[in-house]
Amino acid sequence: MRPKLALLACPLLFAAACSDQEPAAGDENNTDSLIKTNESLTDQLEKERNRTLELEEELAELHEENAELKDDLLTSKQETVDAEAAHRSTADEADQIESRIREALTAMHEQNAEVLEGVTSEATVINEEEAMLTFQLEEDETRSLHWVNLERMNLVQVREIDVNDDAAAVVIEFVHAAEEEIQSTGMLEAELIREEDEWKLQLMSYTQPQK
Question: Which stretches are annotated as coiled coil (predicted)?
Fold first, then answer.
């Protein structure tokens, strides 16, 4: 009986030994799989982090570009406002200058020396007896102008005007009617300066009307 029991015990011991080794191999496989999974997740997480950083940088750039666009838009709007204001200011100045020239012509036509004193520069000499204006130019140079008769002169339109802070130059087209009632055109040129915040006539001349 004992030898038989010994023979039966050997297979049982071998089976038990094999059964003890199988779980160890399975645990090792599971560990390798977990390690690989963990490495894969780590790589994926790193990629996601890098992508997040890239998106954050792109978003920051977009914010910066948006801020620059807003600044450019505000600058453009301000430039438009300034340009419109400058245009209105220039138009107002042009109207004031043309009005001052018409005042001077009307005063000459009406032979009103008092009004002429108010619309001409301090250097201008008003000779009421000879109906003449004498404009003082540079140094000792002068230029005289006989008072005009608006019954025969009709201002048509401003052809040229150049205005800066303290001086202005204007060219105005006019139509002249001769005694024979034949109309012809000419050009009136005027220079004005700013004195005491008002435009004053400094020089005026006109060409002979062209028939």
Answer: 31-114
Sketch the domain layout of the chain as residue ranges.
Answer: 32-211
Burial class (CB in 10 A: 0-12, 13-18, 19+), 79: exposed
Tell me how far apart the alpha carbons of residues 146 and 134 are, in angstroms, rounded to a whole number.
9
CATH topology of domain 32-211: Nuclear Transport Factor 2; Chain: A, (3.10.450)
pLDDT per residue over 59-95, tens digit each? 999 999 999 999 898 888 888 887 777 677 777 888 8
Instruction: Give the 3-state secondary structure of residue 74.
Output: helix
* 128 CB-near residues (< 8 Å, 6+ apart): 111, 113
- How far is it, in rounded angstroms, from Cα 72 to Cα 104? 47
The predicted-structure confidence for 106-158, as pLDDT tens digits, reads as follows 999 999 999 999 999 999 999 999 999 999 887 778 999 999 888 888 888 88
Q: What are phi and psi of 14, to 5 degrees?
A: -65, -40
